[in-house]
Amino acid sequence: MSPRVLTALPVYNEESHVVEVLAEVSRYAGDILVVNDGSSDLTGEVLAEVAGISVLTHEQNQGYGAALRSAFCYAINNDYDVVVTIDCDGQHEPSLIPALASKVFPENDEPYDIVSGSRYLKTFDDASVPPEDRRRVNMMVTEFLNAELNLGLTDSFCGFKAYRTLPLERLNITELGYAMPLQMWVQVAKLGFRVSEFPVPLVYLDEERSFGGSLDDTKQRLAYYRDVLNRELDAFEKSSHTARGTLCD
What we know:
By secondary structure, the chain is α/β, with parallel strands linked by helices. It has one domain: Spore Coat Polysaccharide Biosynthesis Protein SpsA, Chain A (Alpha-Beta Complex), CATH 3.90.550.10. Helix content is 35%, strand content 15%. The protein has 8 helices and 7 strands; from the N terminus they run βαβαβαβαβαβααβα. The chain has a 7-stranded mixed β-sheet.
């Protein structure tokens, strides 16, 4: 029996992109969830006109991590086997959704808990050149994670991932902003999740895209990431955290 796959898109103020992205995603995905994270533009109205999708709305903007946590809980509560996350900014290739999802349950092997897209595992023809500061921060954080947790990652920030739904219940996601993936990586390593990477093209359509507020400053963004990492590592040093089971509590 084929696994049930949910494709989830976190969205915030994407009225100019969301219809085009969803049209492409719908070519390669069956069940689609959009988490509208308190958009203040016309994203909500636009989504109401799109057929064949489910929409979960945060009345107030909570953050990228909060949108992903809501997607995970939706997948758990609706008995999906796999949830694929893909951003709504046009930086990911929806045509790769089926291949990415299929890697979670490889033939003649144990399932992976996370298959994480990597923009640096393979060089694709016509790949974009990433903004220098974003590439540098990604490299620094990825090297830190590998040194501390022996994860063997090449890209710690790619939002294009496939997750086996069942083990997600063991996570305790409290970081609701852009550093949520870093908190997750610490927990994933400490809880013994099985992880693999999957090569995806490097695409940047808007190099000036904002993180918002102080995070647009590279030094402050890096300090924020380090604070989240150190706090989560310290939490695991102080307790066993062998099975948390609080993701959707």
